[in-house]
């Protein structure tokens, strides 16, 4: 059941935000030849990163559903009880968001679409606001010193672990 909820979460949240909206914004544009095809590599890396993160969440006994969606837990599950770390979470506290952003920017490249690229920039800003304003305070409150220690050792977006 947890895997099904993870799949439903993926279709409803990253599927809409990371695939459907950019394709809608880029409607009418066709894939470009040459250098622009490198966008497929960016999409593949982003999708693999997202999948790796999803598997980490499922292994921890939850889905990536953010805490304020608990009323939808029957459909998309809810966050695990313990902090998800290791794997891509050694280099970023938010690699799942980075995976979705890579998929969006990969589509912007393939379509050579300024609207999709601008959407990606706005999406990053929205992710940042959610992370800083909602997720981090929630994790500090629920995970305590474990999260504080994790924050000291792992960058918010991307970088080498400090420890």
Strand content: under 5%
Low-confidence runs (pLDDT<50, min 5 residues)?
Answer: none
Structure summary, number of beta strands: 0
Return Rg in Å: 16 Å
Terminal CA distance: 37 Å
Characterization of the model:
By secondary structure, the chain is an all-alpha fold. The chain has one domain (2-153). The chain has seven helices and no strands. Helix 3 runs antiparallel to helix 5 (95-111) and helix 5 (95-111) packs antiparallel against helix 6 (114-143). The radius of gyration is 16 Å and the shape is globular. The N and C termini lie far apart (37 Å). The relative contact order is 0.17.
Helix-strand layout with pairing:
Blueprint: H1 2-12, H2 14-25, H3 39-59, H4 73-76, H5 95-111, H6 114-143, H7 145-153
Helix pairs in contact: 1-2, 2-5, 2-6, 3-5, 5-6
């Amino acid at each position: 059941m947890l895997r099904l909820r993870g799949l439903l979460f993926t279709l409803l949240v990253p599927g809409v935000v990371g695939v459907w909206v950019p394709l809608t914004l880029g409607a009418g544009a066709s894939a470009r030849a040459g250098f622009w095809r490198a966008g497929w590599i960016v999409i593949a890396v982003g999708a693999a990163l997202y999948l790796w993160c999803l598997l980490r969440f499922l292994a921890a006994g939850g889905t990536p559903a953010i805490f304020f969606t608990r009323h939808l837990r029957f459909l998309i599950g809810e966050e695990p009880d313990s902090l998800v770390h290791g794997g891509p979470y050694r280099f970023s506290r938010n690699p799942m968001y980075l995976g979705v952003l890579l998929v969006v920017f990969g589509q912007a490249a393939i379509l050579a679409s300024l609207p999709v690229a601008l959407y990606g920039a706005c999406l990053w800003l929205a992710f940042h606001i959610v992370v800083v304003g909602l997720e981090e305070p929630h994790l500090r409150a629920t995970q305590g010193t474990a999260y504080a220690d994790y924050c000291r050792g792992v960058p918010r977006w991307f970088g080498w672990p400090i420890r």
